[in-house]
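User: Design a sequence. Structure:
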């Protein structure tokens, strides 16, 4: 079978494609055909050698931990009806960058119908970790919640879950793409953490801080917590002093919240977040999907930073899944474009005039038929926008076949006008047709309609 090994400790270049014997299921075990694996900071730390001793890893080894795939074989003592079931599981910090993995059948969690395996892979760690933090934070309706960093896969999941819990979410991230993604996920205010006065830009104090950075950034976030608030750190790095927290009546939570081990909480949280995603209440953001053979590039991209959402590696045949997942990415960029009120970004989602373009903005609107007309419409629509607090995609359905694709979704867009500060709200259903051109999906037909009865 195809696999990727770290043949020594070092940079991404130590990851090499190899052929290994496929695993056989032992007693009580199952073999899973790997569809997708999440890429974590821990994978980077072990590969570099920094965390290898702590986790008992020595080269050569196959990296990776969080897997989504399909059960293809089971050992003695395991229900044969598991074969063919879509599942997520973990391998224990190594072994997942391969076409097949063998794991304890007790560690398998069923993926609900309607949820993509790539989405499930993005939730293996991010989903359960985010839920553990949200449960510990005990957010009350109306409380202000600061998420930092908000542009990662985990951060964007925290934004969504904090909002579901009734919180008013403010988010700190770096760069326009991450800030737009945080707005699309439900943050009502976003600030660039690269700015020296980012905490001032938050405005009033917050009740809860969910901090995945620590050190200077974490301490700065701590300063804006109101008396009686909660500060939850999951970075593992130094943060606020306990004595200062007691003086200000702030409750501190550390990494013990997210170190679930083999407790029943791991299964409970995983099942719950998969269910929330299948029901459409949360949506993992997948930034990039790399083929197994490009695992080194996936690690290099992760280390360069600035990514939006979770990075995945797929051991599936790329053509079998890329169309579906890339169309999801097209919709996510659409949402981010409106979140940033960026007409140029939105225009860039369209094909050129060599295609037959149709843009119908409303039931009785005159169709727009050139890229120039569409660009002008976006500018005229977005120029009056002063701020955006909602750019939300729900009820998303995707169909892909070859170089043709269709997407259906509901889109809510809301904020305030620049000149009058009056609030605007748009709630529409969108049907769009896309074509794959030069290895990317572009829009060729777009139609808006009222959402109809809920």
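Assistant: Done.
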């Amino acid at each position: 079978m195809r696999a990727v090994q770290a043949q020594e400790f070092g940079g991404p270049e130590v990851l090499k494609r190899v052929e290994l014997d496929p695993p056989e299921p032992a007693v009580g075990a199952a073999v899973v055909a790997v569809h997708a694996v999440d890429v974590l900071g821990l994978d980077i730390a072990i590969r570099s050698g920094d965390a290898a001793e702590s986790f008992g890893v020595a080269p050569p080894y196959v990296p990776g931990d969080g897997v989504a795939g399909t059960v293809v074989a089971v050992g003695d003592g395991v229900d044969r009806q598991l074969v063919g079931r879509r599942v997520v599981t973990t391998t224990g910090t190594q072994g997942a960058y391969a076409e097949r993995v063998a794991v304890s059948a007790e560690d398998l969690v069923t993926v609900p119908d309607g949820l993509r395996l790539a989405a499930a892979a993005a939730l293996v760690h991010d989903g359960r970790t985010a839920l553990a933090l949200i449960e510990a934070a005990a957010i009350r309706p109306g409380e202000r919640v600061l998420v930092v960093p908000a542009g990662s896969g985990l951060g964007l999941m925290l934004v969504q879950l904090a909002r579901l819990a009734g919180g008013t979410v403010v988010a700190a991230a770096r760069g326009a793409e991450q800030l737009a993604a945080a707005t699309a996920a439900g943050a009502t205010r976003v600030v660039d953490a690269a700015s020296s006065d980012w905490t001032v830009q938050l405005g009033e104090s917050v009740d809860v801080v969910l901090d995945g950075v620590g050190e200077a950034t974490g301490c700065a976030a701590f300063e804006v917590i109101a008396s009686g608030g909660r500060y939850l750190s999951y970075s593992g790095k130094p943060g606020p002093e306990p004595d200062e927290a007691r003086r200000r009546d702030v409750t501190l939570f550390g990494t013990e919240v997210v170190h679930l081990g083999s407790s029943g909480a791991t299964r409970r949280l995983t099942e719950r977040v998969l269910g929330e995603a299948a029901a459409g209440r949360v949506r993992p953001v997948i930034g990039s999907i790399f083929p197994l053979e490009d695992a080194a590039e996936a690690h290099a991209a992760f280390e360069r930073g600035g990514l939006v959402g979770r990075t995945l590696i797929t051991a599936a045949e790329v053509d079998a899944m890329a169309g579906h997942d890339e169309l999801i990415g097209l919709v996510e960029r659409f949402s981010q474009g409106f979140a940033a009120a960026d007409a140029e970004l939105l225009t860039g989602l369209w094909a050129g005039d060599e295609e037959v373009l149709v843009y119908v903005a409303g039931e009785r609107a005159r169709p727009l038929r050139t890229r120039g007309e569409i660009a002008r419409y976006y500018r005229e629509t977005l120029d009056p926008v002063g701020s955006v607090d909602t750019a939300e995609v729900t009820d998303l359905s995707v169909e892909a076949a070859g170089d043709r694709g269709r997407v259906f979704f509901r889109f809510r867009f809301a904020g305030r006008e620049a000149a009058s500060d009056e609030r605007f709200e748009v709630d529409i259903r969108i049907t769009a047709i896309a074509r794959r051109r030069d290895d990317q999906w572009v829009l060729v037909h777009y139609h808006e309609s009222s959402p109809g009865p809920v």
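Residues 200 and 412 are 29 Å apart (CA to CA). Residues 2-110+285-314 form a domain with the Quinone Oxidoreductase; Chain A, domain 1 fold (CATH 3.90.180.10).
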